[in-house]
Amino acid sequence: MKAVKSAVCVCLALMFCGVCVPAVATLGEDAASVQADQARMEATLEISGTQRFSLYRMRLPAGTVVSEYVSPAGMVFAISWQGPVLPDLQQLLGRHFDQYAVAVRPQEPGPAARSGEASGLVVQSRGHMRAFSGRAYLRQMLPRGVLAEEIQ
Questions:
Q1: Quick check: is 61 in a domain?
Q2: How many domains does the chain have?
Q3: Is 108's pLDDT higher than 70?
Q4: How far apart are CA 104 and CA 98, in angstroms?
């Protein structure tokens, strides 16, 4: 009887964790809409948050950390990255990738910092071999009281 109770508790705990720890989503989309990100990037996931937003932090096998900011409404309004390898920005930005390409169109060759805005997508990116960082956010989706400076 004790073994059955233990098995039931373990099953309930696993189901509970599966419901409470959704995978990270694509910029501008529902947090529950893209459960493939974590698996595709083979990343570990850590979730924290405040009343203003939840922070989903993925650590990729190469050491890069990708953070996704989710509003109380469950929408991804910003992403940031930092590490030795550039993450798959096409996956993370989803339908906003073309706007990203326009916003950070290089002015000159080389690893210079690039920033820009295109159709409400704000991007800041910089890096060189083994040291990349950046952030992208949708200005119109920033939750009330959240400052762009909080996206790191």
A1: yes
A2: 1
A3: no
A4: 10
Residue 75, beta-bridge partner list: 30
* Host domain of residue 40: 23-150
User: 40-94, pLDDT tens digit by residue?
Assistant: 778 888 889 999 999 999 999 999 999 999 999 999 999 999 999 999 888 889 8
Domain annotation covers residue 129:
yes
Q: Give the residue from 45, 22, 42, 49 showing the smallest Cα distance to 150.
A: 49
Q: Which residues contact 21 (CB under 8 A, 6 or more apart)?
A: 45, 47
| Torsion over CA: 24, 28, 30, 33 (sign) | negative
> What is the number of H-type helices and E-type strands within the chain?
4, 7
Rounded distance between C-alpha atoms, residue 147 and residue 28, angstroms:
17
Pairwise CA distance, residues 95 & 28, whole Å: 8
Confirm whether 65 is domain-assigned.
yes
Provide the whole-model pTM.
Answer: 0.77
Cβ contacts of 31 within 8 Å, gap of 6 or more: 22, 24, 25, 54, 56, 68, 70, 74, 75, 76
